[in-house]
Amino acid sequence: MDVLTRVADGIATIAMNRPAKKNALTAPMYRAMADALRAGDADPAVRCIVIHGTADAFTAGNDLEDFLNNPPLGEDAPVFSFLTALPACTKPLVAAVAGPAVGVGTTMLLHCDLVYAADNARFALPFAQLGLCPEAASSLLLPMIVGHQRAAEKLLLGEPFSADEAREMGLVNRILPATETIGHALAQAAKLARLPASSLRATKRLMKEGLGASIVQRMRDEGAEFRAMLTAPAAREAFSAFLEKRRPDFTKVG
Ligand code: COA
Q1: Dist CA 8 CA 163 (whole Å)
Q2: Which residue in 67, 68, 89 sits closest to 78, CA to CA?
Q3: What is the pLDDT of residues 23-45, one digit of tens each?
Q4: Mutate to test the pocket of ligand 1, among 16, 21, 22, 227 (most ligand atoms within 8 A of CB)
Q5: What pLDDT, on the 0 to 100 scale, is given for residue 104?
Q6: Is the pTM of this model over 0.85?
C-alpha cells in the first residue's frame, strides 16, 4: 500500500509510503489521501489529522512519470480533489516532514496548522523548472506568509531550502531529529485530541475566516494554467529529462 491510513485515539493518520520513489505521488495515492482527509473530517471520532511520510522522505512531489504519461487534465482529477480537500478540512492538520518535500510536498504544508520538520528536511518548489506554475494556492499563500521577494525566490528560481530557513520563514513550528519527527507530531496531535473538538473547529475557522473563498478561487485559476502547461513542450521536456536522468533543454521551447 502506497498510502497507509488509520484512525486511533481520536487521530486520523495519513502516511505516504512509497519509499523506493521517495513517496512520489501517483493518482491512486492522491485519491487515497483525498478520501482519508474527507473521511477524517466527517468522522466525529476524529479530532485531528496527521500527515507524514517515511523517515527519509516526506514526498518528492507528483510522480513525474505519471505527469508525462497520465497527466491530470480534468478539474476532478485525484490531485485536484486532494488539493481542494486541504483547505476544506475543518479539523487541525498536523504534518511531520523528513527528507525531501518537493512541489506539493511543500505546498500542502501551507494548509497545515502545525508543521514539524526533521533536521534533514529539504523543501523545494520547482514549478518553473518543470515548465509548470504554482498550485495549491501557493501563489497566494506563500507571499502572504513569507513576503513577495522570498516567495519569488522559491517559486521562480525553485531553489531548495533547509528546515532552518523554513522555520525562520514561518513555515515550520519546530525542527527535530529525523527519527523523532513523526513521534513528536503524533504527541502534539494527541494533545489536540484531548481538547474540546468544538473549540478547535471554531478557532481554526476564525483564524482562516475571510481567506477561504480566495483560496478556492486561486486554486481554480492556478489549476486552469497548470493543466494547460502539463502537456505543453516545456513541461514534457522537463519530465522526460528527469526520467532520462539528464538536464532539460528549454532552448527550443517557450
Ligand atoms: N517522480 C517519479 N519518480 C521519482 C520522483 C518523482 N517526482 N522523485 C524521485 N523519483 C524516483 C527517482 O527516479 C529514483 O528512481 P530509480 O531508483 O528508479 O532511478 C528514486 O525515486 C529515488 O530518487 P533519487 O533521485 O535517486 O533520490 P535522491 O535522494 O537523489 O533525490 C529528490 C531525491 C526528491 C531530490 C529527487 O528525486 C528529485 O528531485 N525528484 C523530483 C522532484 C520533482 O521535481 N517533483 C515534482 C514536483 S511538482
Answers
A1: 29
A2: 67
A3: 999 999 999 999 999 999 999 99
A4: 22
A5: 98
A6: yes
Residue 126 beta carbon below 6 angstroms from any ligand 1 atom: yes
Query: CA 20, 133, 241: angle at the middle one, nearest 5?
Result: 45
Residue range 70-82, pLDDT digits in tens: 999 999 999 999 9
CA distance 181 to 249: 38
Burial 213-246 (b: 16+ CB within 10 A, else e): eebeebbeebbeebbebbeeebbbbbbebbeeee
**Average pLDDT in the 63-67 region?**
97
Phi, psi for residue 130 in degrees, rounded to 5:
-100, 10
Length of the chain: 254
- Which triple of cell numbers denotes residue 128? 518553473
Cell 484512525 belongs to residue: 7
Q: What percent of the chain has pLDDT over 90?
A: 98
Averaged pLDDT score across all residues of the chain: 97
Angle at 51 between CA 99 and CA 153, to 5 degrees: 50
Is 38 close to ligand 1, i.e. is its CB under 6 Å away? no
End-to-end C-alpha distance for the chain, whole angstroms: 39
Burial category of 151 from C-beta neighbours within 10 Å (exposed 0-12, middle 13-18, buried 19 and up): buried
CA of 44 to the centre of ligand 1 (A): 37
The alpha carbon of 41 is separated from its chain's Cα centroid by a whole number of angstroms, namely 17
**Cβ of 63 less than 6 Å from ligand 1:** yes
pLDDT of residue 252 exceeding 90, the answer is no
Instruction: Return d(Cα 167, Cα 74) in angstroms, integer.
Output: 35
